[in-house]
């Protein structure tokens, strides 16, 4: 099968041009057609010669995604279910904030991490996405925003899958959407979330990018974390915290710790005290997440007052903590829910 044109970074496309007897600057023209004019075929690239357009068409594919369904929440959140070329389905979400529109992208079909609170891991991992299949999610979302004369300003890699288990495609994706001749999304407007794949936290630190890193922590100690996140057996909490310290020291950037609150599991005042002790002295902040109810899982929601109590305890201990605003609770916006519903319908 031909590769996706959207998987090529600018240097890679320049190299392809030169190897195929074309001037390197043509790569910039192609990027302009793909990411600024956002055309759907090589034939529309009218400032390229017919011969070059034919070469591109013979060498690359452009049909990475097909929209299956689109849902829109009362709060403006838009959720897409896309079909891939092999029939698998993935999700992408547009979230509206006071600072702009954020696109949440998926990096894998399914997930093998096995977090016990997450719908994304139901059914396990099917395959990694190519860089272009991740890029196309941002592009498809931007085309939907074009209809409303709006722009995607931020990207969060927090959809289905573990980004650091698809590391090379992730890096290609980041470079493509950041390119100033492409979607030109600033590195500081991009956040990557990981469940704690320790070796690649070190690798990512050494990339010296300005991309934000978020760690899915969800527990104040190893025992609770292993219960919620089996990945803690593979990469224990103490090793994860060492990697986090290395990231902060190497990059000089603040880390985000994501902490989902689950009723009577990790949301008691003593858990907040323990979490504050774990993070003491680190350049970080905690993003407290009131969990979306997932029918296939049996965790219950933390009461609102308990969430505020948890936040107050962290702040009193010197840990900056925010509470994530809910998006799309009326459209099954928790990761993997729409995909799981589609799988049931197609199998049933």
Automatic annotation (TrEMBL):
Q: Name one GO cellular component term.
A: cytoplasm
| Free-text cofactor note | Binds 1 [4Fe-4S] cluster. The cluster is coordinated with 3 cysteines and an exchangeable S-adenosyl-L-methionine.
- Keywords annotated in UniProt: 4Fe-4S, Cytoplasm, Disulfide bond, Iron, Iron-sulfur, Metal-binding, Methyltransferase, rRNA processing, S-adenosyl-L-methionine, Transferase, tRNA processing
Q: Residue ranges of the Radical SAM core domain?
A: 97-330
Q: Quick check: keyword S-adenosyl-L-methionine in the entry?
A: yes
Q: Where in the cell is it found?
A: Cytoplasm
The residues annotated as the active site are 91, 335
Q: Which cofactor does it need?
A: [4Fe-4S] cluster
Swiss-Prot/TrEMBL GO biological process terms: rRNA base methylation; tRNA methylation
CDD domains, alphabetized? Radical_SAM
Mind telling me which Pfam families this protein's record contains? Radical_SAM (PF04055), RlmN_N (PF21016)
Record's miscellaneous remark: Reaction proceeds by a ping-pong mechanism involving intermediate methylation of a conserved cysteine residue.
This one is known as Probable dual-specificity RNA methyltransferase RlmN
Whichever gene encodes this chain, its name is rlmN
């Amino acid at each position: 099968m031909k590769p996706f044109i959207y998987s090529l970074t600018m240097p890679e496309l320049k190299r392809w041009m030169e190897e195929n007897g074309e001037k390197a600057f043509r790569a910039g023209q192609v990027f302009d057609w793909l990411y600024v004019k956002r055309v759907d075929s090589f034939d529309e690239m009218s400032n390229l010669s017919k011969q070059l357009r034919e070469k591109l068409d013979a060498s690359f594919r452009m049909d990475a995604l097909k929209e299956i369904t689109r849902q829109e929440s009362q709060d403006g959140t838009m959720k897409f279910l896309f079909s891939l070329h092999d029939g698998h389905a993935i999700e992408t979400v547009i979230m509206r904030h006071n600072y702009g529109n954020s696109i949440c992208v998926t990096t894998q079909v399914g997930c093998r991490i096995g977090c016990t609170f997450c719908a994304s891991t139901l059914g396990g991992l099917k395959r990694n996405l190519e860089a272009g299949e991740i890029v196309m999610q941002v592009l498809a979302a931007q085309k939907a925003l074009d209809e409303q004369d709006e722009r995607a300003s931020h990207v969060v890699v927090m959809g289905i899958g573990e980004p650091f288990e698809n590391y090379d495609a992730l890096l290609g994706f980041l470079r493509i959407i950041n390119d100033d001749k492409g979607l030109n999304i600033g590195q500081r407007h991009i956040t990557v979330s990981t469940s704690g794949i320790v070796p690649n936290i070190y690798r990512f630190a050494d990339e010296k990018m300005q991309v934000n890193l978020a760690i899915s922590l969800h527990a104040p100690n190893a025992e609770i974390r292993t219960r919620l996140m089996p990945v803690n057996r593979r990469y224990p909490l103490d090793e994860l915290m060492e990697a986090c310290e290395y990231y902060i020291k190497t990059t000089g950037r603040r880390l985000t710790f994501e902490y989902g609150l689950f009723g009577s599991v990790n949301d008691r005042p003593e858990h907040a005290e323990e979490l504050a002790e774990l993070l003491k002295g680190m350049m970080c902040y905690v993003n407290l997440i009131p969990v979306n109810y997932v029918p296939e899982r049996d965790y219950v929601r933390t009461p609102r007052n308990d969430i505020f109590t948890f936040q107050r305890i962290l702040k009193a201990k010197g840990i900056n903590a925010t509470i994530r605003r809910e998006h799309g609770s009326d459209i099954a916006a928790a990761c993997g829910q729409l995909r799981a519903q589609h799988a049931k319908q197609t199998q049933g």
